[in-house]
């Protein structure tokens, strides 16, 4: 069951995602929180900001991705941030609950990997000296 599936230009609430997948019938919850880090192997200096932008269809696509991993025994809450995020900012939250831990882990990992590969959200990486580059271009291939 998909309980949350969205793109947001507001900060993502990790606790709200956990609450969304909570249920008396589940025994396990797997959580992934992706944050902006200050290093990148391809960057010459320190990363200070990521500017996320999205294709107009991205909200529908994240829902479609979530639906593709949906099974009757799992509850899914996934959101991706757009806009400017400083180091430490939360870029993606994915919470999956199920009766057993193995399924929660497996579905969570699959969902995160699919979002990274297929969601048309792009990021411009800004370094401390003001230089920038587009990284992690994916989706709509």
From TrEMBL:
Mind telling me what this protein is named? Molybdenum cofactor biosynthesis protein MoaE
- Which InterPro entries is this protein grouped with? MoaE_sf, Mopterin_biosynth_MoaE
């Amino acid at each position: 069951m998909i309980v949350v599936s969205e793109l947001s230009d507001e900060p993502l609430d990790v606790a709200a995602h956990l609450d969304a997948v909570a249920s008396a019938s589940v025994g396990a919850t797997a959580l992934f929180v992706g944050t902006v880090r200050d290093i990148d192997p391809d960057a010459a200096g320190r990363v200070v900001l990521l500017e996320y932008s999205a294709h107009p269809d991205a909200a529908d696509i994240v829902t479609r991705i979530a639906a593709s991993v949906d099974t009757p025994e799992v509850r899914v809450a996934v959101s991706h941030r757009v806009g400017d995020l400083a180091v430490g900012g939360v870029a993606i939250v994915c919470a999956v609950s199920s009766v057993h831990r193995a399924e929660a882990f497996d579905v969570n990992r699959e969902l995160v990997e699919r979002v990274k590969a297929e969601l048309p959200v792009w990021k411009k990486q800004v370094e401390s000296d003001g230089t920038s580059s587009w990284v992690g271009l994916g989706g709509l291939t």
